Structures are given as structure tokens and as C-alpha cells.
């Protein structure tokens, strides 16, 4: 929590981030990102892991848009 603003500022500058949200519940930050392949996703996650203040990353992949 003490590094939330700093992490958000860093994420805002990343071109892969299409949407950035704060939330309550299990996760403090939610992001919408677009990648051409799993390798790009993997490299992005490695970059996130190096950010000071990031303690956990829980990627989820959208399979189908219903509405």
C-alpha cells in the first residue's frame, strides 16, 4: 500500500497497459494489457516482478467476451 502511487505512475507509462484500475478485494491494481503472443506476456510479467512495491502478480487471460 505504501508504494501504490509509485507503482501506478510506473504502470501508466508502460505502452502495453491499455487500462489501469484500482480495486478493493483481493487485488489492489487491475490492468488490461494486450499482447501478440505468450512470450510477450511472459516478458511483461518479468518486468512487473522487478518493480519496487509489487509483491504478487496474478495474470488472467480472457477467453471469450460475453457481453
Key features of this structure:
16% strand; alpha+beta; 67 residues; globular; single chain; 2 helices; Alpha-Beta Plaits; two-stranded antiparallel ribbon
Write structural notes for this entry.
- There is one protein chain.
- With 67 residues, this protein is of the alpha+beta class.
- The chain has a domain at 4-49: Lrp/AsnC effector binding domain/regulation of amino acid metabolism (RAM) domain (Alpha-Beta Plaits, 2-Layer Sandwich), CATH 3.30.70.
- It is 31% helix and 16% strand.
- It is built from two helices and two strands, in the order αββα.
- The protein has helices at 4-12, 38-49; strands spanning 17-22, 29-33.
- The protein has a two-stranded antiparallel sheet with strand order 1-2.
Separation of termini? 33 Å
The radius of gyration is: 12 Å
In order across it, which strands form the biggest sheet?
Answer: 1-2
DSSP strand count:
2
- Report the CATH architecture of the domain at 4-49: 2-Layer Sandwich
- What letter string, H or E per element, gives the SSE order? HEEH
The CATH superfamily title of the domain at 4-49: Lrp/AsnC effector binding domain/regulation of amino acid metabolism (RAM) domain
The number of helical runs is: 2
Mean pLDDT: 95
Binned, the helix content reads 25-40%
The CATH class of the domain at 4-49 is: Alpha Beta
- CATH fold label of the domain at 4-49: Alpha-Beta Plaits
Any idea what the shape is? Answer: globular
Q: Which structural category fits the helices and strands?
A: alpha+beta
**Strand fraction:** 15-25%
Q: Uncertain segments of ≥5 residues (pLDDT<50)? A: none
Sheet with the most strands, sense and barrel status: 2 strands, antiparallel
